[in-house]
């Protein structure tokens, strides 16, 4: 007897539909799983045997049956334990212990030996794929119900045990007694919500730089001595960013679900991620990969902030690996099991000291580094990486007099309103394009949306020739000026906008 049910395999942040076919014939007992399974799937035979027996059905091990399970398409490598449930259901159908119509239903879940169903990763991506392929119902572990329910217009059925799943399949309804409340992820490395820019004394130029970055989605490098407030400014940056759209929430949650970064009580990320990996982080931790090709920190920061404190202290290979994702807003992770494309649309906030001791150029403390060490330290950040960072700003030490002042500067709430207004202009501008912010514009879009008058063109030409700008730097100046124009509500880029962009883009200007 042959039966077939449907499941799904994760591929990047998406999922592919898998057919789980079971054939039973009379012979000496054997249980084989084919279709490029990994070790965890091969071990599912024992979990499935025990779960079926302890759920009150006939133990496959005690039958004279040759059981063959095929997972198609065979060229896709199958990993993980989420296929336990579909394998069990397919066997029970093939052995005529249940009468099942598999069409329109998709199953995922790991089985415990007593028949309980444990949660799996990527439930949101699996449900989304099921909807896209025309399935009417997805049967998931109870713990994955909230997450899977974020996808509308498809029925999501939560089950706690194999027996409960079978009861449902024989047309007895399961009413999920789960209250859905919105939640958001609390990232351990995230910025505390009480960090407000108004509590950071002085540093008005750095605050302006962060405002521009938030408005246009630009990358920022802050340079200054230890204790000047670079880290505090970076952590306050999250408070001026606009809220996530519904689509961005789903995208972000998908990535964190696949990476198994969602906590037990959360199912939807509503705040922009703020990822702050330590400078000792490996290349794989930063960009993704490993045996199962999971997303790295740059993908976990998708639609949010990747904060790299002490930027030059990161491994050279890790720093250079940022070139492609900072340019393309995605990263391809290639492994023996295949190539996976992960989104990586981040705002990079990086900080660095001017030298190893941190006090080169300071008027408050003498630098103890040799010029050779200073140059070696500064060259740790290559030209191609600096070329991809739109805004470069100095963060000097704050005097004790200003530190002791009780005066408050502009609140994050007020800056956020200006940022949201600039983003609204960009949303309208790019409504027919596949981008959302000025920083994402390609060269054709820059020529389309960033017209320069005669005076502005002459000014930009002089700047480019004087500083020997690369093509990338030239166009990044225009993108930055476009954001500055949006912040002031100007329809066209002015020479003043370009002049301010030069101050943040070119050192020494």
Number of helices: 21
Number of β-strand runs: 18
Fraction of residues in helices? Answer: 25-40%
Structural shape: elongated
Would you identify the CATH architecture of the largest domain?
Answer: 3-Layer(aba) Sandwich
C-alpha end-to-end distance: 78 Å
Rg of Cα set: 28 Å
Poorly predicted runs are 177-192
Classify the secondary structure makeup into a structural class. alpha/beta
The CATH homology group name of the largest domain: P-loop containing nucleotide triphosphate hydrolases
- Order of strands across the widest beta sheet? 11-14-17-10-18
CATH topology of the largest domain: Rossmann fold
Count up the domains.
3
| Percent strand | 15-25%
Biggest β-sheet strands, sense, barrel: 5 strands, parallel
What top-tier CATH class of the largest domain fits best? Alpha Beta
Q: Mean pLDDT, as a whole number?
A: 88
- Oligomerization category of the chains in this entry: single chain
């Amino acid at each position: 007897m042959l039966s077939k049910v449907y499941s799904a395999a994760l591929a990047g942040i998406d999922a592919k539909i898998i057919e789980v076919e079971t054939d039973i014939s009379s012979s000496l007992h054997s249980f084989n799983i084919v279709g490029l399974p990994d070790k965890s799937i091969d071990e599912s035979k024992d979990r499935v045997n025990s779960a079926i027996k302890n759920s009150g059905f006939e133990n496959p091990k005690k039958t004279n049956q040759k059981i063959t399970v095929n997972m198609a398409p065979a060229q896709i490598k199958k990993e993980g334990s989420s296929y336990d449930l579909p394998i069990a259901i397919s066997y029970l159908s093939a052995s005529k212990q249940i009468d099942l119509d598999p069409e329109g239903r998709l199953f995922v879940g790991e089985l415990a030996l007593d028949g309980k169903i444990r949660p799996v990763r990527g439930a949101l991506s699996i449900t989304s794929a099921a909807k896209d392929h025309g399935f009417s119902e997805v049967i998931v572990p109870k713990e994955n119900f909230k997450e899977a329910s974020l996808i509308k217009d498809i029925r999501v059925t939560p089950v706690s045990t194999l027996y409960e799943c079978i009861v449902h399949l024989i047309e007895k309804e399961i009413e999920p007694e789960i209250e859905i409340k919105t939640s958001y992820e609390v990232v351990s490395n995230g910025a505390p919500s009480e960090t407000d820019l108004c509590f950071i004394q002085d540093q008005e130029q750095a605050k302006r730089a962060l405002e521009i970055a938030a408005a246009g989605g630009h990358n920022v490098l802050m340079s200054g001595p230890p204790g000047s407030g670079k880290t505090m400014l970076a952590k306050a940056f999250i408070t001026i960013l606009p809220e996530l759209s519904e689509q961005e929430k789903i995208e972000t949650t998908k990535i964190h679900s696949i990476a198994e970064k969602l906590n037990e009580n959360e199912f939807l990320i509503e705040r922009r991620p703020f990822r702050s990996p330590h400078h000792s982080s490996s290349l794989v931790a930063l960009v993704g990969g490993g045996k199962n090709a999971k997303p790295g920190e740059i993908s976990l920061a998708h639609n949010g902030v990747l904060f790299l404190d002490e930027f030059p202290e990161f491994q050279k290979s890790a720093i250079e690996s940022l070139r492609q994702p900072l340019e393309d807003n995605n990263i391809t992770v290639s492994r023996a099991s295949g190539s996976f494309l992960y989104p990586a649309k981040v705002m990079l906030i990086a900080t660095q000291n001017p030298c190893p001791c941190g006090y080169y150029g300071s008027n408050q403390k003498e630098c103890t580094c040799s010029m050779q060490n200073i140059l070696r330290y500064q060259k740790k950040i290559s030209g191609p990486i600096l070329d991809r960072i739109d805004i470069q700003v100095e963060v000097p030490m704050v005097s004790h007099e200003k530190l002791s002042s009780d005066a408050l500067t502009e609140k994050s709430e007020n800056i956020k309103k200006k940022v949201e207004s600039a983003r609204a202009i960009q949303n309208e501008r790019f409504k027919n394009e596949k981008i959302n912010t000025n920083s994402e514009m390609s060269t054709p879009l820059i020529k389309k949306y960033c017209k320069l008058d005669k005076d502005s063109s002459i000014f930009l030409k002089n700047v480019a020739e004087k500083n020997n700008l690369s093509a990338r730097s030239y166009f990044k100046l225009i993108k930055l000026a476009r954001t500055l124009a949006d912040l002031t509500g100007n329809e066209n880029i002015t020479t003043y906008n370009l002049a301010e962009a030069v101050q943040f883009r070119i050192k020494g200007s």
